[in-house]
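Hi F.,

I've been meaning to write this up properly since the lab meeting, where we talked about keeping a consistent format for the predictions we share between groups. The idea is simple: the sequence comes first, exactly as it goes in, then the C-alpha cells exactly as they come out, then a line or two of notes. No screenshots and no reformatting. I'm using this chain as the first example so we have something concrete to point to.
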Amino acid sequence: MSLVGLNFDKEKTISKAKNFLENDFPDIMNYSGLPVTYLSSPLLDPTGVHGGNVNHQPDQFLKAIEQQDKYDAIVKDCENATRAVVESMNSCPDTERDPYRKILVRRYVKNDFAQWIYNDMNYSPRTYGRKRDEALYIFAQHLERYRKKYNAERLIPVLMVHG
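Output, unedited:
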C-alpha cells in the first residue's frame, strides 16, 4: 500500500503484528497487572504495586527502594503499553461486516481459540483468517498513534513494515 509516498508491505506488517500480539503482548499484559475484565474498556484504572517486608538497615533499605522503584517503573511501562494496545484495538472498526475489534480482543486479549471465534461468528476458517489478517493490519496502523500517546515506544515496536 502507498500513502503519501510511503510504501507498506501488508503481508510483513500482518506477520509482525501477529508475532507481537502472540509473543510479546501476553508478557506485557501480565506484568501490567491489569485484569482482563478491564481491558475491553477504554478507561483503564491503573494498579499500584506496593512492597512488603524491607530490612531497615540504611544500605539495604536504599537498595530495596531502588529495586522497588525499578520494578514499579517496569510495571508502569507495561501498564502504558497495555493501554496503548487495548486502545488501538478499541479504535478498530467493529461492525457486522468488519468485526475487527471483536476478533482482536477475543483472540489476543481474552486468548480465545480461533475455532471458538469463527464458530461464534458463523465464519469459515478461511473467512476468519482473512478477517483476522485485515484486523491485524488495521491494528498496526492505529497502534503507531497510541504507542506514542502512552509513551510505550520502548516496549512496543513499530509494526508497519516499509516495502
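Notes:
DSSP finds five helices and two strands in the chain.
Confidence is low (pLDDT under 50) at residues 42-56.

If this format works for you, I'll send the rest the same way.

G.
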